[in-house]
Design goal:
Distance between the termini: 5 Å
Number of helices: 14
Bound molecules: ligand EPZ
CATH class of the largest domain: Alpha Beta
Structural class: alpha/beta
Strand order of the largest sheet: 22-23-1-24
CATH topology of the largest domain: UDP-n-acetylglucosamine1-carboxyvinyl-transferase, Chain
Helix content: 25-40%
Radius of gyration: 21 Å
Strand content: 25-35%
CATH superfamily of the largest domain: Enolpyruvate transferase domain
CATH architecture of the largest domain: Alpha-beta prism
Number of domains: 2
Number of strands: 24
Largest sheet: 4 strands, mixed
């Protein structure tokens, strides 16, 4: 298992290009199941999760080819719809295969995704919506067995705005008979990006980006070429890192409108963020003001940047309250940050962070994807020694060449085999 080492103290300076969004790439790859032709996807990041979904789909007969022109996905020889437990348990987003497989083949066997470090991660809202569209589902030995001759459009109300739930049902609905109306739908940019990809295949979708999405089913779709949006969580991670280190960085490919809540909070901290034609120019302050945050579905502050922002608040002036409202167990990074001297008290779904002048280098353990990023950011400001972040395979699920990108900005950071 690899580990990443950081010798803190260097302000980040220069330019960094953001990779394509993991959480847009996964549904886009799954959407290729809907039409048995050759699709071309661009901007697909080289991540462990992307390799995992390709491995699962290859097992069903999908063929992948990556080249300069992007990732070609050919699902013309789709033979089976099984997503095995040993792969699904490593990537919960495999549930995104259920909707398109039911729409295309009328059958699917998907392992129930287990929980993960940040929460139980139920999929009940996905299943309830598919049943309302006429799917016959039953659970057996940890697998969802699904059948449907032809899904019927239906009114769907999500008790909670679920990102992959919205995406799954959108994909199920594009080939269904009649109209599907999604209410209390997720509004994340990745949902709109998937809608763009599906419209590129000939789907009839409107309202994506709002809480009500209308889909009119069609009989057939056709091949598409689609470029996924930049990864706003990676961009936000670099924004926070630049603010933390008092740096000066142009983040290329960053779209401010995908991160308005984060931009506003970082400006309150004292950072300067100016949109430029390549993306966003960020300058970090010498001193950091403490600012409270509460994670919310888009367009609120994203839960996927909560851990990174907590690392920043650990070195701010004064105290801040960080409230996590999306996942029930997303403070696992706190104990590791405290090993570096951070002063944090958890009370239910709130964390009180008492900022202090600096953090101390220490060996720490990554526990989930975004917690890993927060520990690296803490290492960037831990002085007089080397911070060692272990179990870095968590990081490789969702960040492409992160340490190389930080090296390019002047950070003293490197990877070693553990
Ligand atoms: C997506 O997960 C993202 N993953 C997550 O990113 C992100 O944190 C999350 O959305 C919230 O923005 C992908 O897009 C692949 P949800 P998802 O369904 O869809 C509850 C990362 O680090 N819920 O929007 O699984 C759920 O428990 C990952 O890149 C149900 O109760 O999240 C949670 O409390 C982590 N029943 C809330 O809704 C359901 O059927 C929001 O979850 C579905 C969800």
């Amino acid at each position: 298992m690899d580990k990443i080492l950081i010798e803190g103290g260097e302000p980040l300076r220069g330019r960094v290009r953001i990779s394509g969004a993991k959480n847009a790439a996964l549904p886009a790859v799954a959407a290729c199941l809907l039409c048995g032709e050759k699709h071309v996807l661009r901007g697909i990041p080289g991540l462990r999760d992307i390799r995992t979904i390709q491995e699962i789909m290859s097992g069903m007969g999908a063929e992948f080819q990556s080249g300069n022109n992007g990732l070609t996905v050919d699902t013309s020889n789709l033979r089976d719809g099984e997503a095995p437990y040993d792969l699904v348990r490593t990537m919960r987003a495999s549930i995104l295969l259920l909707g398109p497989l039911l729409a295309r083949l009328g059958r699917a066997r998907i392992s129930l995704p287990g929980g993960c470090a940040i929460g139980a991660r139920p999929v009940n809202l996905h299943l309830k919506a598919l049943v309302s569209m006429g799917a016959d589902l039953h659970l057996d030995r940890g697998y969802i067995h699904a059948r449907a001759d032809r899904l019927r459009g239906a009114p769907v109300f999500f008790d909670i705005p679920t990102v992959t739930g919205t995406e799954n049902i959108m994909m199920a609905a594009v080939l269904a008979e009649g109209r599907t109306v999604l209410k209390n739908a997720a509004r994340e940019p990745e949902v709109s990006d998937l809608a763009d990809a599906l419209r590129g295949m000939g789907a009839r979708i409107e309202g994506d980006g709002t809480d009500t999405i209308l889909i009119d089913g069609v009989r057939d779709l056709h091949a598409t070429t689609h470029t996924v949006i930049p990864d706003r969580i990676e961009a936000g991670t670099f924004m926070i890192a630049t603010a933390m280190t008092g740096g000066d960085v142009v983040i290329e490919g960053c779209r401010g409108e995908h991160l308005s809540a984060v931009v506003q909070k970082l400006q309150s901290v004292g950072a300067e963020l100016v949109p430029v034609k390549e993306g966003m120019h960020v300058r970090g302050p010498g001193q950091h003001r403490s600012v409270d945050i509460k994670t919310m579905p888009f367009p609120g502050f994203p839960t996927d940047l909560q851990a990174q922002f907590m690392a920043l608040m650990s070195v701010a002036d004064g105290s801040s309250i960080i409230k996590e409202t999306v996942f029930e167990n997303r403070f696992i990074h706190v104990s590791e940050l405290k090993r570096m001297g951070a002063e944090i008290e958890i009370n239910g779904n709130q964390a009180l962070v008492r900022g202090r002048a600096g953090l101390l280098p220490a060996p720490v353990m990554a526990t989930d994807l975004r917690a890993s990023a927060s520990l690296i950011l803490a290492g960037l400001v831990a002085l007089d020694g080397v911070t060692e972040v272990r179990r870095i395979y968590h990081l490789d699920r969702g960040y492409e060449n992160l340490e190389t990108k930080f090296q390019g900005l002047g950070a003293r950071i490197w990877r070693e085999k553990a």
